[in-house]
UniProtKB/TrEMBL annotation:
Pfam families attached to this UniProt entry: GIIM (PF08388)
PROSITE patterns: RT_POL
Similarity section: Belongs to the bacterial reverse transcriptase family.
Reverse transcriptase domain residues: 1-33
Protein name per its UniProtKB record: Reverse transcriptase domain-containing protein
Length: 194
């Protein structure tokens, strides 16, 4: 390998290069790539997940006196971006874990904000109960309308799998136009309103 790279004027850094077996796995760009019982799975790395949770907790703790709506406006882009980055891999359990940990951090934030109130009062004020599932939310009156601010539910982020395209399928071969048109319609229908 080193000789192959050297012919092209490239070298591997000894400190940064780590050769490992695929069954042990490795982390790359926030993903953990590993083979489990013969099946390759790509998951969010544990280190990156814990770092993201630590940043969320610090953000919540730092803004202890902030209003609910402003806190939701701070958290939503972070949650959406992180979920969109990992929604193409095996991340459902990780999303559930992050959602649970975030709920606990927000519960502590709400209870700490209202020390003299009871836990049921805090639950009614900050959380909507939907069939046993609590959702963090806020309300604001804008021009005589009651507007709701809801926190992104990261646990309900859909996992989107990529389906490989046939190797021989090209736009320039008329035999494959029906196949490519069908793929295009399937992709559009997932993202459209209709």
């Amino acid at each position: 390998m080193a000789r192959f790279l050297q012919e092209r004027g490239l070298t591997l850094s000894e400190e940064k290069t780590h050769v490992t077996h695929i069954n042990d796995g490795f982390d790359f760009l926030g993903f953990n790539i590993r083979k489990y019982k013969g099946k390759l799975l790509i998951k969010p790395s544990k280190r990156n997940t814990l770092l993201f949770l630590r940043n969320l907790r610090q953000l919540i703790k730092k803004h202890a006196t902030m209003s609910v709506n402003d806190l939701i406006k701070l958290l939503n882009p972070k949650l959406r971006g992180w979920a969109n980055y990992y929604r193409h891999c095996v991340a459902k359990k990780v999303f559930d874990y992050v959602g649970h940990q975030l709920f606990q951090a927000l519960w502590r934030w709400a209870v700490r904000k209202h020390i003299t109130k009871g836990r049921q009062w805090v639950a009614r004020k900050y959380f909507l109960d939907r069939n046993g599932y609590w959702r963090f939310h806020g309300r604001q009156k804008i021009a005589d309308m009651d507007c709701a601010f809801n926190l992104v539910e990261i646990a309900k982020t859909l996992i989107e799998r990529h389906v490989k395209i046939r190797g021989a399928a090209t736009l320039y071969n008329p035999e494959h136009t029906a196949y490519l048109q069908e793929r295009k319609l399937n992709k559009q229908s997932r993202n459209s309103w209709f």
